[in-house]
Amino acid sequence: MHSAIIDLPSATPGTRRTLTVQRFGTAGARPCAYIQASLHADEIPAMLVADKLRRILTALEAEGRIAGEVILVPVANPVGLGQSLMDHHLGRFDQDDGKNFNRDYPHLTEAVAERVADRLTDDGEANKAAIRAALAEALAERTPRTETEHMKHRLLELALQADWVLDLHCDLEAVMHLYTLTPSAEAFAPLQRLLGARAVFLAEESGGDPFDEAVSRPWNELAKRWPDRPIPFGCHSVTVELRGQADVEHAQGEADAQAIAGFLTHAGVLSGEPPALPEPLCAPTPLESSEPLTAPVGGVVVFHHKAGDRVEAGAVVADILDPLTGDVTPVRSESAGVLYAHSATRFTLAGKRIAKVAGTTLRRTGPLLSA
Ligand SMILES: [Zn+2]
């Protein structure tokens, strides 16, 4: 393993944060997998899995089994990791401006299209190389200013050149689920099966410009723009939701890391016999069909189901109790599907999302991800 430190510019005199980048295999070798943990800094299962993965990769490297290259950033968000308020860790939003750390990544398709329009040929590999170079140039033209902008810029710079990007997150209370671009569903089927994902969500654009789509969307959109040119899909990316925030446990973390290593073997990043694939536990569904359940009133939340339960259309997923009047307001799922995540607290304000069901019938529009 080769470890390097990226210094982020100091935000205030006397402070300095860094990104640690751990590389396995030969620099520049392909296929290259980029894996980062806890971009939402309060999603701790990801850092545990990254630690387990580092141990696995270190052992495999000693056996000469890193065929390509793996780039691991075990702490992707040192800014968010240091944020707390009154004993509560706040890692999802930047305290400085309230922005979600996994939103507002640059959409580079247009800038890349301008650069490659005259350079695309009938040679797919040459086109891929030209697009990768253009992606790097387009990103380099952007000028980050704040510490967080620099951090996001440096993470994206690393991931943009990879063949595979795994962004490790978790939900509040949840079962294993994945988000990926629609054209990448097949590519991540081995990961889905090895991790035992209970839901896989597909979209060509989720809204909000999350990290994973910043690296993958340009390939999809450029291929559509030039259907007469061979443009291989240069970067498949996935957001892996490692269950809920409290699911931090050695055996489970080890199993998840082994599953990711198994996937990397299927992808040819690691050499050796790929593991057998268990039967899939779900079929991928459109993200637009995922149903957020919203509390119509504020009050005490009493769930009737736990994460992982399959609910029928019309099922009462939770009651909202008004402790002053005793009024009970049921919250029903319009969709049938797996209740793949719900809130971790048991009190809600009116209008807040308290649960999500992996349905198949809704066709939501607008931003499809949680705030
Ligand atoms: Zn997250």
UniProtKB/TrEMBL annotation:
Top-level division of the source organism's lineage: Bacteria
Coiled-coil ranges from the UniProt annotation: none
SUPFAM superfamilies: Zn-dependent exopeptidases (SSF53187)
Pfam families: AstE_AspA_cat (PF24827)
Keywords, in A-Z order: Hydrolase, Metal-binding, Plasmid, Zinc
Gene3D superfamilies: Zn peptidases (3.40.630.10)
Domain Succinylglutamate desuccinylase/Aspartoacylase catalytic: from-to ranges: 33-266
Cofactor: Zn(2+)
InterPro entries: AstE_AspA_cat, N-alpha-Ac-DABA_deacetylase
Entry GO MF terms: hydrolase activity, acting on ester bonds; metal ion binding
UniProt entry tagged with the keyword Metal-binding: yes
Name this protein carries in UniProt: Succinylglutamate desuccinylase/Aspartoacylase catalytic domain-containing protein
Biological source species: Azospirillum baldaniorum
